[in-house]
Amino acid sequence: MGAYIVRRIFGMLLVLIAVSFIVYLIFIVIPGGDPAQRIAGKVATPANVAAIRHRLGLDQSFIVQWYDLVKSLFTAKLVSYYNQTNVVQQIKQGLPATFSLSIGAGIIWMGFGILVGLISAVTAGRLSDRVITALALIGISLPVAWLGLILRYFLAGEGGGVSWFPDGGYVSLTSSPVQWFYHLLLPWFTLAILFIGFYGRVLRSNILDTINEDFVRTAKAKGLSTRRILVKHVLRASLIPIVTLFGLDFASVLGGGAIITESVYNLHGVGWYAAQSIQTQDLPPLMGVTLYGAMFIVVFTLLVDLAYAYLDPRIRLS
Amino acid sequence: MAERLLEVKDLKVRFATEDGIVRAVDGISFELERGKVLGIVGESGSGKSVTAMTLMGLTRGVNARFEGEVLYKGTDLLKISDRDMQSFRGNELGMIFQDPMTSLNPVYRIGEQIVEAIQAHENIDKRQARSRTIELLRQVGIPNPETRVDDFPHQFSGGMRQRAMIAMALSCNPSILIADEPTTALDVTIQAQIVELVNRLKDDFDSAVIFITHDLGVIADIADEIIVMYAGRVVERGSKRDVFYDPQMPYTWGLLGSIPRLDRPRPERLHTIEGSPPSLINLPEGCKFRPRCPHAFDKCMQEPGLENRVESPGHLDRCWLDVDFKRSNRDRTISGSSVEAA
Amino acid sequence: MATTGQEEFTLDTAAELAAEEGATKEIQGRSPWVLAGRRLRRNYVALAFLGVFILIVVCCLLAPLYSRHVSGLGQNDTNSGGVITVNGRKVHVISQGGTKIVNGQPQIVFGGIPIGAQWGAAGGKYILGADELGRDVATRLLYGGRNSLFIGVTSAAICTALSVILALLAGYFGGIVDWVISRFFDLIWAFPVVLLGIALGTALSVNGFHHFGINLSGSSLWITILVIAFVFIPYIGRPLRGQVLALRNREFVEAATAQGAGSVRIMFTELLPNIASSVLVLFTLIVANAILTEVGLSYLGAGVQLPNPSWGTMIEEGSSRLSTAPQISLWAGIAIAITVLAINVFGDGLRDALDPRAKIRIEHG
Q1: I need a labelling partner for B223 at 20 to 30 A (CA). Which of A150, A318, B139, C339 fits?
Q2: DSSP labels, A20-50
Q3: Which helix (H) or strand (E) element contains residue B233?
């Protein structure tokens, strides 16, 4: 087991190196034209551009360039050329908002997703199932940006509606827990809706498949109560794929993937930072956030695989 | 006479499917006494598995309809609620299935699954249940049961898994053990061991056994009574002697003839029964075997009743053919010469 | 799965069915496609939503007609100072600031507010209202829909085609080919979808894409199409690769090889048909996701570039004017939601129809 983990960590590092190379490709090589000009952004003076060119060693070889880029990223020296702020610093500042949003939403969507999927599966074919399925389908069809705007319009006093909720903005946990919670409710809900619908359907499908498995038939033949069969046999098997999905989705939003939700609600997290940079075509922050996001996914992929090995003994011993 | 445990009276099971109504079981009746072994034989689709699962209440569902009675010690198992049925399953009726690999939950240890079966019906603590489990594993012939009790199913071989399943099914001392094709997924050598095991255990546990298979050879040894099923109906029924030495149904001849044997003169080819089983949605008129029967004649357009047509009183069949004709013609089918039309 | 619209098959309905279809048929072998088609035809809800989707596509394709005959305004025709006739009165398209006297009291009228939905009152103009530059929302909705749908369907098609090829190659050849392709999938997979999309989208929108003989300007729709297609490759590629691997060792492949069939032939005539139903289902899934992704990217500015309208850019344009001119964002969002829902419901129905497992199984209680 220990050897397995070491091997995986090693593999992870390789992937991260490859990822940084991809980031390099995306931002420097692929667009063509003058990378220095591009990195300097829209508001660049010729002096800026020349400095960047020298900084990035654009007269040097491919590999050296890449190495320098990675080094500047990892040693926190990458600087945005739009407003001269340090990228890594900015990312760090965005962490509390992004983490608050992600963890809260994650708990909500996992909890409700499982609940909804379970009810839907157990009452399959009946009214409650049909209603839940319809709602879930609608939930996964809504564009997140629009949903956020609509909620703000109706519930946060943006437009004609009531002012039950604050209209965006992030209040840090340390300054006021109550306000922190209050300000996050709508964003949590917005982010969670899409996932609840999706997870509910996946779980429903898994449960209905598992119910027809031979070992469930055996459990019934043993005379176990319906409740026990459902929980210990059916659910246990059905939840394993959900754990995998959750690991990756959660990693994705932690890594700044909730960029739209953060933008709509003006939560100054990592995703929001990336969104701002798009407007100004400011590439260094995008590079930084992209690498940061990839790192989360790679780490969580490992965690998910470990969890899978724990949950399914057939994998464990191989 | 031994205690009569089970009385099945004219059981019918129908399922609603996309393509129509499937008459899986169309009127089967039999009795089972303690200590006896009943063999139910038939091809896929004959209704044998559905019968077995219906006894356990495992075929209940929105699409299923039942008629007739299944009386276990006087209680009609078809009429009681699923909740009540739970106290019978595992406790009074134990069942083992065809594929032991998929029939055991892969994420729980073997011991855990057997303990679960015991604790579902008996009020004993985990430790006692566990030591009983170890004893059961020993009884079914698993070596080193103390260590192997904590293994996962994929760590057992096919034969051992089936033994573990048998242990699990017998863990609460059920009066009846239902074995649904328990040897079909196993190697031939292991098959014999399992059959032998069931035979021994039935005496140790004083249970009755319903042994379901498509292969008459498998139950040649242990069955006391044999029922041959075809298209959801019983087509022949009698003691082992009757069915093996005086089979009355051409279908049974076909089944017997298709057992590869070493003691008879070698035929040119292994005998097969022409054609395939009928659709259970659109059954043929008259005798259900008629389309495949080499001896069919005009009377066969009318379905024969299940009646006793021979000297032995318990021996029933569904065939219009004259008994003497049958006795003089069947050997060719069974021993493998080519089949001629009547 | 979603059984909206499928009735319970009770013995009574089964009996009706048997009576309708003629009870004395023999068992005929029917191909799985025919069976699937039959099941799909019975799924009225799925077919209805397919119809909705087709209707939306047709409407969007007719955008030029709408522009010419109904609204009289093009997709980019601004009209900030314009005046239209509503029920006989003259109204400014964008309100002029100033003061009005109401009941003898002076009241401030805010300027810069576009008019709302006129429905029929202005003779076809501004049926759904105007946006901040005086453009006709309804016209832009249709043109924007054309763009969004075009991007969604095309990127899904390209993605599916590429993924199928990669999956076949990886699954069939195995070995180093499989290793390289799998690592390729892993690398794309390592990025959160949206982040990768905006990274690529932004980087490419600066200067366009000028490699491999392809020349695309930064504001070309094709940039967005290619970005979305690229990002979703592992989502289709990995499941398909798994299926191909499983099929690879089946006897029919061995048989074909023994008959002398070459690799390409085996991949396309033996393996492909067997994964075809998965491909279809995954394709519909990706179309839905592609449309939503385009909306997200355009909203953030990394997708469709102005002045081209798309449903995503419209949502963004209206986001700062929610209280004064909700129509800018509202209708675009509704259009997206209905379109994606239609695709999802139909996709569900398709999956149910293609599912090789019998729909009614012998239930275990």
Answers
A1: B139
A2: HHHHHIIIIITT-S-HHHHHH-SS--HHHHH
A3: strand B233-239
pLDDT at B225 > cutoff 80 = yes
d(CA A149, CA C313): 14
Q: Which single residue is written with the structure tokens 């799925």?
A: C46
* Cβ contact, residue pair C9, B82, below 8 Å: no
Question: Taking the alpha carbons of A192, A194, A198, A201 in that order, is the dihedral positive or negative?
Answer: positive
Least Cα separation, residue B267 to chain C (angstroms): 31
Tell me, yes or no, if C17 comes closer than 8 A to chain B by beta carbon.
yes
List the structure tokens of C336: 């997206």
Compute CA distances C159 → A143, C324, C332, whole Å: 21, 40, 25
Interatomic CA distance for residues C325 and C333, integer angstroms:
14
Cα angle A164, A166, A169; round to 5: 165
| Nearest by Cα to B279 from B17, B63, B88 | B17
Which of A32, A259, A264 minimises the CB distance to C207? A32
Residues of C (312-341) whose Cβ lies below 8 Å from A: 312, 315-316, 318-319, 322-323, 326, 329-330, 332-333, 336-337, 340-341
Residues of chain B contacting C24 with CB distance shorter than 8 Å: 282
- Is any Cβ of chain B less than 8 angstroms from the Cβ of A227? no
Paired sense of beta strands B93-96 and B20-33, if any: unpaired
Distance from CA of A52 to the nearest CA of C (A): 17
Q: How far apart are CA B76 and CA C80, in angstroms?
A: 83
Tokens of A46: 């010729």
Chains that touch A (3 or more CB pairs under 8 A): B, C
- Report strand pairing: B64-72 vs B75-76: antiparallel
| B60-118 pLDDT per residue, tens | 988 899 999 999 998 999 999 999 999 999 899 999 999 888 999 998 999 999 999 99
Q: Tokens at residue C13, please?
A: 């309905």
The pLDDT tens digits for B281-290 are 888 888 888 8
- How close, in Å, is residue C75 to chain A by CA atoms? 21
Contact B258, B219 (CB under 8 A): no
CA-wise closest residue to C163 among C102, C236, C101: C236
Query: CA–CA separation, A303 vs A138, rounded Å?
Result: 32
Of B21, B50, B58, the CB nearest to C11: B21
The per-residue pLDDT for A96 is: 87
Cis peptide upstream of residue A31 (ω within 30 degrees of 0) = no
Model pLDDT, residue A318:
45
Model confidence pLDDT, tens digit, residues A212-241? 899 999 999 999 999 999 999 999 889 888
The span from the CA of C304 to the CA of C221, in Å, is 6
Chains that touch B (3 or more CB pairs under 8 A): A, C
The H-assigned helical ranges of chain B are 48-55, 82-86, 100-103, 110-121, 126-139, 145-148, 158-170, 188-204, 216-219, 240-245, 250-257, 323-335
- Residues belonging to chain A: 318
Q: What was the pLDDT predicted at C90?
A: 75
Q: How far is A310 from chain C (nearest CA, A)?
A: 23
pLDDT of residue A204: 92
Alpha helix stretches (DSSP H) within B144-187: 145-148, 158-170
Measure the CA–CA gap between C70 and B273, rounded to whole angstroms. Answer: 75
What is this structure's pTM?
Answer: 0.84
The string of pLDDT tens digits covering residues C215-267 is 777 677 888 899 999 999 999 998 899 888 888 888 788 888 888 878 888 88
Q: Is the pLDDT of residue C9 over 50?
A: no
> Is residue B70 exposed (0-12), middle (13-18) or buried (19+ Cβ within 10 Å)?
buried
* Residue-averaged pLDDT of chain A: 81
Tell me the C-alpha distance between A269 and A101, whole Å. Answer: 9
